């Protein structure tokens, strides 16, 4: 898909430029575009370095774990068909709290682990379960408290108040996530009762210790190496 | 309402910046050293974006310079003008769910062309910041565990992107009028 979009832009540009007699402008634009790609990335360094530093403090102090715990009633409501003490729950909470703090790189491995755990409950290994769809919906509309990348770009282009979009972004992200949850619920109901979980033997001894704690252990630098990762910004 | 929004924007970041180290110090975390340790990752994160961002910036910059962008937007401009929505943000709404680097490049291009504090710049920033790349998330998450039948997941993701896109425009037009 991304390949086609990219090709579309380039081919259409050259064809339209040829018709319009703007071939020189397009050549110039290609080099200018490459240059601004680098400039923007360099502009991100300052904020990324600062924010990831702050986030490491948050991680070491257990703020993310706390956040995960605060989220647990919500998560239980969102995932009614996952047993409350199943390992998937811990990963889901870690994934959501990492998203909240704008740690895409930490959120992805957590999300994949959650999916792997959900897959263990899945009777049909090729078809998504409702719980998987819910987790996906939450991740595609990810609630983010601080849109660091955007603040950095606005700063680079000389905004008088780079952070003024925090409030509007927060409001829009809430609306989008709300819509995702509603749509997910609607489809869930329409598609009937979920398939029964695969045999799951609950480990009574670890009932209260959710793996949220161990789940947060890999450092933020644990960038996922999944294919397609180059498109995540 | 407007008051509240500007308050949140002004206070959220300082609040986080002061709360986290204070809480960490209280929990006996060596705050400065931890900060430096974590900050090292920021450099790599920013640099890793270069290849995809350069690729997308080149494509979008060419698309604008060739006149193809105006050609494409010309068709829908009357409708958007009638709704008093800036037409320029429309491609962003289409790109956002499909490619993260592409929509980021497009946002940067809009900010560079119209200014970060213009209505277009603010709407673009809000759209880009408020959702994630649906197609990417779907591919990575389901790809990792071998799910082929994704049921309604894509529909839900795209629906929420559409709602987020419209919400971003309406909220910005209301707050920053």
Automatic annotation (TrEMBL), chain B:
Residues 47-147 form the Nucleoside transporter/FeoB GTPase Gate domain. It comes from the Bacteria. Pfam families: Gate (PF07670). Keywords: Membrane, Transmembrane, Transmembrane helix. InterPro entries: Gate_dom, SpmB. The keyword Cytoplasm does not apply. The chain crosses the membrane at residues 7-26, 46-63, 156-176. PANTHER family: INNER MEMBRANE PROTEIN YJIG. This is Spore maturation protein B.
